[in-house]
Amino acid sequence: FTVRSTSLQELLVNRMKAVRGRAEACALRQFTALSSFLDGVEYSWSCSYPKVTHGLGLWGLLELGLKTSKRQGEEVLSLYMCAQDSLSFQDQERGFAAEIGKHVVTQFSALNLHLTTKGHAFGAFVLRLLGMHRLKDIHNFNIDVSRSEVKEACPLNCPCDGPKGWKSQTISLNLRKVKIEGFKGENHELDFLKVVLRCSPTLKSVTVKLPDRDMPSDDWCTKIHNIFGEYPYVEGNIDLISG
């Protein structure tokens, strides 16, 4: 089914079998799905924003989704975020958390974060995100970093690598499994990796992935292996992706 409305505020779907639907309703405040087929199977939904009105720091929220598998006992939150031209959401942590809570009322244990960086550093932002109360129980964390074909660079004095001191901060993370796709081995990425390893006492494995066309140098590999070597209880992996 497809619903398009500029005034619809509540939508109730009651079906006895699987259904795929799309709702384009900018004023929608409540969506409820009632169906016996949801018991014991996997289902998912997502909400896309026609324009960026919510975010955190430099990063705007483009899409939010939830995927649930009752058989596996895991609920996965997906966030699609893109770097903006300015600190549009500098003091919006509470509003950003409220936006997530408005759509997601269940407890989730996994987070898939899709970032379009536009050349910006993301380490400080991701740690701030993981430190939010709403995300404290995340065990499985996947980051997919997207960069443009044309190399982009931060402007002078860009705030993306702030606040100062984030590389030495101590936060409590409950992460058990981390995957980073699109890893380039840049300094801020290595610093982020160090903080995650240092602040996650229950961490079991970390995997960094990059396309094989971006084959890392020996120096890059040495740095990664040295970082992993400081945490022998964590399984560290470097994967090359074809394409």
UniProtKB/TrEMBL annotation:
Pfam families (alphabetical): FBD
Endpoints of the signal sequence: none
Domain FBD, chain residue ranges per copy: 172-207
PANTHER family for the chain: F-BOX DOMAIN-CONTAINING PROTEIN (PTHR34709:SF77), OS10G0396666 PROTEIN (PTHR34709)
The name this protein goes by in its record: FBD domain-containing protein
Organismal lineage: Eukaryota, Viridiplantae, Streptophyta, Embryophyta, Tracheophyta
